[in-house]
Amino acid sequence: MSRRNKTAEVFGTGAGSELAPSVRAFRTTLMLAQKLRYAMDERLRTDGLTTQQAALITAVVALGRPSLAEAAAALGSTHQNVAQIVAALVRKELLRVEADPADRRRKLLSATERSTAYWRERDAGDLAAVADWFADLTPAELDTFCDLSDRVITRLDDA
């Protein structure tokens, strides 16, 4: 028994789609991103977090002590949107905001010890869930998926 992709039927992205290939790819990617974000939001909801908040913490840790502007650029979001996410994470004691010693007007972001401990507890379960979401793809298909997605992301970054 084959599984049906109801989203593909609704948005015309399934096999035999009459959409232009780039439009089909866009719609497929958009639907995938929305479904993945919803699934991760569901996992994080019990702790009062969102996928966007988790992504910001990931970016902050990866960048070291980025400014708000650097974090916004990394997420491909606006300064205002990231400032709202930062405020929520500061209230939850998962991020810290400090003045840059070299330029007191500039604010630097860093993850707190509480954040580090929280993610250490969650990581194994979250990684297992993500692996399950992509379980129908082989390692080679996952590599291809990532390579192709990275090319589109790079083109958008260069635009």
Descriptive key words:
single chain, 159 residues, mainly alpha, two-stranded antiparallel ribbon, 67% helix
Most strands sheet = 2 strands, antiparallel
Structural class: mainly alpha
Please give the count of helices. Answer: 7
Question: Which blocks of ≥5 consecutive residues have pLDDT under 50?
Answer: none
Strand fraction band? 5-15%
Order of helices and strands: HHHHHEEHH
C-alpha termini separation: 44 Å
* Amount of helix: 55-70%
Rg, nearest Å: 19 Å
Strand order of the largest sheet: 1-2
Shape: globular
Give the rounded overall mean pLDDT: 93
Count of extended strands:
2
Topology:
Elements: H1 6-11, H2 21-45, H3 51-63, H4 68-75, H5 79-91, E1 95-100, E2 103-111, H6 113-133, H7 139-158
Antiparallel strand pairs: 1-2
